[in-house]
Amino acid sequence: MELVFEKTKGLRDKTTHYCPGCTHGIIHRLVAEVMEEMGILEDTVGVASVGCSVLSYEYFNCDMTQAAHGRAPAVATGLKRVLPEGRFVFTYQGDGDLASIGTAEIVHAAARGENITVIFVNNAIYGMTGGQMAPTSLLGQKTATSPFGRDAGLQGSPIRISEMLATLDGAAYITRVSSHDVPNIIKAKKAIRKAFETQKKGLGFSLVEILSTCPTNWGLDPLESLHWVRDNMVPVFQLGVYKDVEEGK
Fold this sequence. Notes:
Distance between the termini: 46 Å
Number of strands: 7
Order of helices and strands: HEEHEHHEHHEHEHHE
Number of domains: 1
Structural class: alpha/beta
CATH class: Alpha Beta
CATH superfamily: Thiamin diphosphate (ThDP)-binding fold, Pyr/PP domains
Largest sheet: 7 strands, mixed
Strand content: 15-25%
CATH topology: Rossmann fold
CATH architecture: 3-Layer(aba) Sandwich
Strand order of the largest sheet: 2-1-3-4-6-5-7
Low-confidence stretches: none
């Protein structure tokens, strides 16, 4: 019998806690496959953030540690500086964690050019804590704390993390991809590998922003959520490479 699929060794045999239709599971698999294919599972330390991904240390089959809310880049900085040679360090963070309480940490880690990789999952809402408005929530988007829709005059406009970090000299590779369909998932995996290779070459800070779904807090079914990413998030958070020092961009 021909083998058409084999579960990556980068994930443990444990059922995740994510809601049906959430693409965290897909993103976990992509990160795990990249680590396995690069042969770095035994040499990688991941930093779990606070949010829906708070239990990611139970899913990735590599060394993991837990950081306080928003502090994953600071913890990753310490790990990488203590283990600079032959070790890979990555953080796995959501938009509430990274773009709100952790804004200072992510900005200064990028500004310092810390040789770490950040996996940034953007679903435009606070998932774990009940669907509050996030810094990345879209204008007009209804959330638990913006029941009439986000108003630029009251709450400002969405923060575009990739565009902001790409302006910093210490950033080596910054890209935004999506998980809403197969072609974009394939591109997302390539971007994750590029980010880890950037770290391997010692080029500096890398971040892959991945647009993701939140069917539960968006009040949509899984298929509708994928379409919502395509139709609403992609026009605001445009996909593409925003910084790549290796390519001279």
